[in-house]
């Protein structure tokens, strides 16, 4: 519209429009579009009767030059040094539906199919005397990740209740396939905290005209029974039962600042108790005095940022978590009765994840490709994470495989804004330490892999 108005005005004055003028106008429009994207961090109140449909997903393939044997981190890792394997997968396929009823009332739903969903049925086996058997033909998960009702009083005050994403960390707040460079979600946050983290919660949120966006949430606490060494507190979101236990409670919050062109700065956090938030009981339950003061308080803090302008994208995050009473919770979980939901493993008192990625859009150098909304990024990424960063009463190097560095390089090609083709080569570098024979060196095999993927993300109002 800006271009048409200027062209019309200049045509009336019989003044020629130069290429430089047109380019300046195009850049102005692009900046206005970026500002609109920036403002979309905050929930909007749609028009009455507006129906929103959308989703995101990935189709991926990878080849790994390391073993997927569950014993690969055992005492003899060299036994698996020459193993390799490949995978084709549908990590996430998500359908989003929303409706605005008017007067500030709206509803949102999100259904996720992980790894292709599930295919199971009861069948009659003719080869086995006509017996009825349960057959699992395809692994995977189907989950209702979001179902919430929302009342918007104005842009400053919005209340939302129901199943919703807990926006702690960069990945939970920006988990759509087009919001990160890698074929898969970044390993650090994905390893140590739930992703995508969704709970039934009550949220107060809003935004200000100068670029501040805020959320504060009240939700049930995590369940310490399901903490483990590989994924820290990640397995404990949601519930293995038909309901979410709420013997303990927690709070979460996030603040975003987008008042500078192309830049987003974010702080987020979570705090809540986790001990005894379960139906399972330990064999040591009778010794109540040993666990009388145990709370298992989980505290998570995260900083993340993103910058996008002039063909450059920079993103980074740092997430640190602490669990109080980790040693007591470890002993409690190990003594769980057989068949309980606990993995009966050691759990760390501290875990961390840090990552940074940078990419440049070479199509931004060509005006015609820019006008077609095409982009081609060359990117690099580095991660460091450790789900057993600190723990008690065990040899220092026993869980060295839980911490690693990971470096990746790759490309992202977007023929249109909503669809991307990705490829990357990554290299996981595991820690060195003291071997069983007392010598220093590599304890486990490094983990190189190549992956490709096709991704999409789009949301439309009808």
Could you characterize what this model shows?
Residues 1-7, 9-17 and 36-46 have low confidence and may be disordered. The protein has 462 residues and is mainly beta. Helices cover 12% and strands 46% of the residues. The strands form 3 sheets. A 16-stranded antiparallel beta barrel has the order 1-3-4-7-8-9-10-11-12-13-14-15-16-17-18-21. Strands 5-6 form a two-stranded antiparallel ribbon. It has a two-stranded antiparallel ribbon with strand order 19-20. The chain starts with a helix and ends with a strand.
Strand content: over 45%
Series of secondary-structure elements, N-terminal to C-terminal: HHEEEEEEEEHHEEEEEEHEHEEEEEE
From the N-terminal CA to the C-terminal CA, the straight-line distance is 23 Å
Task: Report the count of strand segments.
Answer: 21
Mean pLDDT: 84
| Shape estimate | globular
State the helix count.
Answer: 6
Low-confidence stretches: 1-7, 9-17, 36-46
Structural class: mainly beta
Amount of helix:
10-25%
As laid out across the biggest beta sheet, the strand order is 1-3-4-7-8-9-10-11-12-13-14-15-16-17-18-21
Radius of gyration: 25 Å
Major sheet size, sense and barrel closure: 16 strands, antiparallel, barrel
